[in-house]
Design a protein that fits this description.
about 15% strand; 8 helices; globular; about 250 residues; seven-stranded parallel β-barrel; two-stranded antiparallel ribbon; TIM Barrel; alpha/beta
């Protein structure tokens, strides 16, 4: 059994990103953009409505600045400024979720913030502190990461995450999107990788080497052009369940 999560709610006014309406019934957890890399107010409202309709776990998905690069370029921000940026995003989404009678179940950083928080003390502390402040019980992130250790020391539940539509490098880091083969768009290949991680506890990197990996949730990117087809393949082949304590 596996929790399938998806980064979504990333449309921005006239710019539509992903096929959220069709994907939402196929997943168990969603990570919703909070108005920086995507997610205008109307999109946030509709995304929350859709998630509650299908009884999907709702997570906040805050980002570093940079709408043009979709929040995927690292920026070294002063800690106070970073705090204010992340807190304002989570506050915005939490208000929408609570206003519709729901609760945020988890927090997952987006893009460059996700990777920085996995290893850098400042970014990790800001993410953990935000979860504590807003009463969010779980954090999604890379397995065996500094973020995970910090979250658990703070009394939060850390949910180790694997990616079904991204290729791994030798050290289990994600292969850059700018490099050939960095993104998986073939549903059969994505399903095979999902099976490897969820059922066997290993992943094959770009060079064909197997690595052990223990995950509790699998991520699909909603902006992947093949996201719907991948979600259909995984939902149809694997027993999908909600993440721990969800």
């Amino acid at each position: 059994m596996v929790d399938l999560n998806c980064d979504m709610g990333e449309s921005w006014y006239e710019e539509t990103v992903g096929r959220d309406t069709a994907i939402m019934p196929l997943i168990t957890s969603c990570n919703l953009a909070c108005g920086v890399h995507g997610g205008d107010p109307g999109t946030m409202q509709r995304s929350v409505e859709l998630a509650l309709l299908h009884k999907i776990n709702i997570g906040a998905h805050p980002s570093l600045p940079g709408q043009q690069n979709f929040g995927r370029e690292p920026i070294d921000m002063p800690e106070q400024e970073l705090n204010e940026l992340i807190y304002s995003q989570v506050d915005r989404l939490q208000a929408e979720v609570k206003g519709q009678g729901g609760e945020l179940t988890h927090l997952k950083a987006h893009g460059a913030l996700y990777h920085l928080a996995a290893s850098q003390p400042k970014e990790a502390m800001v993410v953990v502190a935000a979860a504590i402040y807003f009463g969010i019980p779980k954090i999604f992130g890379p397995p065996e990461s500094a973020l995970g250790r910090l979250a658990e020391r703070a009394g939060l539940t850390f949910v180790a995450e694997g990616f079904v539509d991204r290729v791994y490098e030798n050290g289990r880091q994600l292969r850059s999107r700018s490099l050939a083969g960095g993104v998986i768009q073939n549903p059969a290949k994505a399903l095979a990788q999902a099976r490897q991680m969820a059922e066997h506890g290993w992943v094959i990197d770009y060079y064909g080497t197997s690595h052990p990996i223990q995950v509790e949730t699998l991520c699909l990117h909603g902006d992947n052009p093949a996201a719907l087809e991948i979600a259909e393949a995984i939902h149809g082949a694997l027993e999908v369940r909600r993440s721990p304590n969800g």
